[in-house]
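User: My instructor asked us to take a sequence, write out its structure as tokens, and then describe one feature of it. I'm not sure where to start. Here is the sequence I was given:
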Amino acid sequence: MDHATFIPPERTLMGPGPSDVSQRVLNAMARPTVGHLDPLFIDLMDDIKGLLQYAFKTDNPLTMPVSAPGSAGMEACFANLVEPGDKVLVCVNGVFGQRMVENVTRCGGQALVVEDDWGTQTDLQKVEDELNAHPDIKILAFVHAETSTGVRNDARQLCQLARQYDCLSIVDAVTSLGGIEVDVDGWGIDAIYSGSQKCLSCVPGISPVSFGPRAVERIQNRQVPVQSWFLDMNLIMGYWGKGGKRAYHHTAPVNSLYALHESLLMLKEEGLSQAWQRHQQGHEKLYKGLTDLGISFAVDQAYRLPQLNVVTIPDGVDDAAVRKQLLDEFNLEIGAGLGDLAGKVWRIGLMGFACKDRNIDHCVASISKVIR
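Assistant: Let's start with the prediction itself. The structure tokens for your sequence are:
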């Protein structure tokens, strides 16, 4: 077998992630690698922390990027906060809620589940009923932006319920950070995780997380050690602590963190509310283009994610054949449905750098040609 340099084609990434990465971010990755304990890199880490606090809208000192994708951010939150026997209430209305349940179980916790139909919001009344029925629930966990269904859950209200019933909240913001409003301190979120490859439009492989004071106290007062050595925040705090001397924990992905820093810098330059507004305007343009083709949106407008559009595949259209043709002929990637929605919907991402007129026009025109 002959081996050669891998040169990927220039795709337009409008699936559920990764999203298009700007040349600025790719250029940042190509800069010279320095040691992960180099004083200059430590300065960069402090800057990344400040930019992440801006993106999450928080003053939490324990805000940092986990050196692995969003799934590791999820595991970091559950592994650090769930102890054996803890009751955790998980809201499930898609694939990623189900993954939360899996994490609770593997941490030795007891998962109680509030289930709602895929494509609908988590029912707040059902959550409150469960919290009333089980006063010993320690944590309420939910997905803010459910990537599998394109639904936005009501994070503000869910966090308010967690506070009211003296629970910690764990929030999945993998697809929401940078795309719609996320307000960690304003909503009282105790632990939150995201991913670099969605609305931040960075390369995949990094998971920003933030732990509030109540979560940090829980971590420091654990009865049993965190079962994951790599994700134990008690150890990582020594590496991502503020400035000065850092304890060696692991070799950080230096060049990927250059990329994250650049993407966060771009978000700061644009401004959070401007970024949220751009995603909303992009969604409205895509909505008009696709509905003009007779394609309907699967999620109610009231809680539809602008950055992840789940649309119903028209009758008689071959799901896989269309996606293959879009990729082969138009270099355009859109996403398939997952779980209950497999074969019924497409997931079209408008995330970060990919949310721009040129991409939306290309997407609508390409789908139009293929389904005609």
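For the description part of your assignment, you could build on this observation: The chain has 13 helices and 14 strands. Try explaining in your own words what that tells you about the chain.
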